[in-house]
Design goal:
The protein has 361 residues and is α/β, with parallel strands linked by helices. It contains twelve helices and 14 strands. Helix 4 runs parallel beside helix 9 and helix 6 (172-211) crosses helix 9. The protein binds adenosine-5'-diphosphate and magnesium ion.
Length: 361
Amino acid sequence: MQVTRLDITQLRSLRAVSLAPAAGINVLIGDNGAGKTSVLEALHVMAYGRSFRGRVGDGLVGVGERALEIFVEWQQAVPQRLRRAGLRHSGQSWEGRLDGEPVSQLGQLCAALAVVTFEPGSHALVNGGGEPRRRFMDWGLFHVEQTFLPYWRRYARALKQRNALLKARAGGSQLDSWDHELAEAGEAITGWRQHYLERLQPWLSETNAALAPTLGEATLTFLPGWRRDEISLADALLLSRDRDLATGFTSVGPHRADWRIRHTGLPQGAALSRGQAKLSALGCLLAQAERHAADRGEWPIVVLDDLASELDSSHQRRVLERLIQSHAQVFLSGTDIPPTLRDVAADFTTFHVEHGDVRPG
Ligand SMILES: Nc1ncnc2c1ncn2[C@@H]1O[C@H](COP(=O)(O)OP(=O)(O)O)[C@@H](O)[C@H]1O
Ligand SMILES: [Mg+2]
């Protein structure tokens, strides 16, 4: 995929910005607070319905403005086609358009535009709470497995209903039907997630060996959210019912799923340093992007916010070399052009970001 136009209005300090990115590497240069990350957030919001710095309602709309607007035009390679997506989001409500038609679910925009983002908070993928790791698996499935999303929605709806009944201390027969729904959708989601991580493993081994050989071999372990090797989800829900009635929430199931990454280069049980966690997370994200490329026949857009302050120069070089070889379109930001980029890239496109304005050059 290649973004050919990006228009942003009222997103943080960006008033009205329009960029025509090029193929290959695009670099956003500007001082701290100039608005570089905000430009990258715009792409991320279109592709995920939220920013990597929180929801749209958490301060993304420019102060004093009612809504932000994002327009993205991109060349899709498979099948070849020029695509356009527009989003107006107030934090509470939104309206979207895809290829000239209104969309009824944000997921339609997210499924159309594939973006993989590495940013200063990405270490949380390996050393933070489970939510980003569940989102990581689901992003992969969402883009590849057409039937994943309907099951995911069924599960989310049933979970909400079951939790509401638990809080109301409802009786067995009402819970039975939601347990049935949760078990059916939940087993399907879990099967896909397990398969996704298993198939990601060879990609991860490769990216990890190329990017961070000092960490050793990287292995993923899937944690389904209940003792799946012993019992079905239906049985797990039934067994946990008394406890769930006492606490008012569902304690087992795919909403509690997770995964772990282990590196043979580190002593068993040793915690990753922040820098190692970043490398580990970057390995996972690149593996995911490469696998997406293999499955879909084209690379997602790769966003690297503040690359030079996140990685030392030898690791920057490794990532950049790999991305240049892939011919992916990349957006990276920094206060200056990273010297490593000059070393490895014959050619790149620069944009200057200043006081919420962006100009080519
Ligand atoms: N809701 C908002 N409205 C207006 N300005 C904002 C809002 N949220 C953040 N900002 C400002 O936007 C600027 C953009 O910051 P950011 O994109 O993080 O810059 P950079 O990545 O270049 O350091 C900051 O100066 C910040 O104070
Ligand atoms: Mg920034």
